[in-house]
Design a protein that fits this description.
The chain is of the alpha+beta class and 491 residues long. It has a single domain, classed as Alpha-Beta Complex (Amidase signature (AS) enzymes). It contains 17 helices and 13 strands. Helix 4 links the parallel strand 3 and strand 4. Bound molecules: glutamine (GLN). Glutamine binds next to loops. Glutamine (GLN) binds next to loops.
Amino acid sequence: MTQTQFTIKALAEALSNGKVSSVELTKEAINAARGDTNNCFISLSEEHALQQAHDADVQIRNKASSFLTGIPMAHKDIFCTKHSTTTCGSKMLENFAAPYDATVVRKLDDAGMVCIGKTNMDEFAMGSSNESSFFGAVHHPWDSDYVPGGSSGGSAAAVAKGYVPFATGTDTGGSIRQPSAFCGVTGLKPTYGSISRFGMVAFASSLDQAGPIGLSALDLAHSFAFMAGFDKRDSTCAKRRDDWLDRIKSEGFTPGHSPKKIGLPRGRIFNEISYQNAFETARRQLESSGHSFVEVDLPNLEHAVPVYYVLASAEASTNLARYDGVRFGHRCNDPRSLEDLYRRSRSEGFGEEVKRRILTGTYTLSVGYFDDYYVKAQKIRRKISDDFTATFSKVDALMLPTTPDTAFKLGSLNDDPVSMYQQDLFTVPASLAGIPALSIPCGFHNDLPVGLQLIGPANSEKTILEIACEYQKNTTWHLARPHSNSVLEKF
Ligand code: GLN
């Protein structure tokens, strides 16, 4: 285990005091990414990145830079970018060149970040292992026989390997938090609607949310501030009333330290996690810095996985109807009729997991089953959300494990979709309620990283980030790195 200081914060300092230039950093990042053997990237864009880095150096010299200017980063390949393909991990979009940039891409470009490439992901963000990618599985950064988690597995693994200090992810039911926990990095799923979904390929629109993956909670606060904000091109994007995000952009984030009351949910499902020791040690660590803990009940939590898979699949089945072989995306050769065109284009373009979701989603929305599945799932979703609301009248935040176990072996759950879905046991509840949740590394179990999750009420990112920053001030789990070949470390 080695410790490094390869955070956005450290690099921003090195850039601003002239110890390194963005062009130098970017070249190193691209070289490191080229040597990647974990399959973290779907595409790299050297020319584009070097141009951005050159511009960033000019801005830094002219003292016209932001906190993020000149820092290399990568986007999950779900965000539309003009400069490269946007595949969403699918054969369906293998050659898709978006005519515009996603709002998140534009915002981070405007902040001066340098995008070195697009990261690998589960096809259409459906999965918990990154094995459903058309471009091949990503390998775990600490042990290549294992999965890195999904669907933002390429982003989490790229950060863990040190190719970039920061990458974007998306989280519909855990896809930022679960791979962050598996890979030993820090990830935030913000409140639903905080970050624009414009230009982010849709999976389940009532749940999809973009967010940052980085090495520290402090870095997440800074990158989140630049990613968030109202966008009229996304009808579910919220106008937030708090101004702390705007303040971060001009002044930086100085986390406060007020003691918080943290709820620990009790119940059968919490007794089954494999890394009880690491979790309990983390709780005591938080307690020793002044936070208090109380046990709470979230009675409907155990229904979250089936509810999520009914609703997410239903939404996916309608969202993915647009890939019909007519307008964009994969088209079969020599269609004999319109129906043949639809059928073969979709059969050839989508992988197995995506087809499974489309089939189950279409089924639950069909006449005769709609009330039994979709409507019922919506009612339970409301109950889960109400449980959280009731709990947050008593506590400031909740602490949960991020996952039931450590990363699992590549291939081990491929024939067992239900066990794969159970991986999301602790992440889907916050997604269904649309509330913010982050995962921070809290130790190791069987030599693999594990994470804990902090969840807060809507728009309470500041609270959970502050608790996380404090934890990371007193611990070093987030700085533990695999035997890295990151040449960026020398900066
Ligand atoms: N693992 C979950 C799924 O397969 C979550 C995916 C996500 O958050 N994008 O749907």
